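User: Hi! I'm working on a homework problem where we have to compare a predicted structure to a textbook description. Could you give me the structure for the chain below?
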Amino acid sequence: MELKALEQKAREVRTGIIEAIHNAGSGHPGGSLSAADIVTALYFDEMNVDPKDPEMEGRDKLILSKGHAGPAQYVALAVRGYFPMEDVMTLRKLGSKFQGHPDMHKVPGIEMSTGSLGQGFSAAGGMAMANKLNGDAGRIYVLLGDGELQEGIVWEAAMSATHYKLDNLVGIVDHNGLQIDGKNEDVMSIMPVAEKFEAFGWNVLQIDGHDFGQILDAFKKARDCKGRPTMIIAETVKGKGVSFMENNAGWHGKAPDDEQTEQALKELGGAI
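Assistant: Happy to help. Predicted structure tokens:
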């Protein structure tokens, strides 16, 4: 898909995120918005998937290890055609299959139930290993939050992935610098991120996570890398696209009110 078309899809995804979280009255807009471009690039350009056949053999899979950003994945799947957008607008409502964190048993296209940080990354490694053993050509993509890197299970999984030469595994760190309690560096510094993954044997790429050209190029380089997994460190802005949410840790986990929603949708409806 052309870059301008991807930008438009990302705008639709961001708009849906704001609407769904506003309707719910709760949720995680900041990290959903920062991940929107990456998720859009995956579903609309990079991954081999079929909305009409979510269980297609040989498909690529996205594991949202930062499961609290579920609205980004839900809305992207809706825009991609997996289910109607109005279904996503039941987010967090009693009886809705669109829970606060993704449920693989209820939502088509969700490959792993996530939310307990770090576990999605481990599961992705297991899926990549299973594909190798089964001769399945599908690739595994896993999106992590930067605060999530404070979990010890992440580094066990990182070590395992290189040991088993999982070159069909691509990790992406949504590196926006903020988590629920504030700046990463104040809570528990994760730096230097790139050097850490390099030390664990990963092929490491560093990009602007809001530049579709760089995102798609990184995915190509990951495909070309043989014998080891790739980690893409994507520099992003928490709350990207909504001025009063950008770089504000306070928007990690709260919903905008009516006035704030109106402003956010107006900003997202303008030219990129």
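For your comparison, note the following. The CA atoms of residues 58 and 136 lie 6 Å apart. The chain has one domain: 3-268. Good luck with the assignment!
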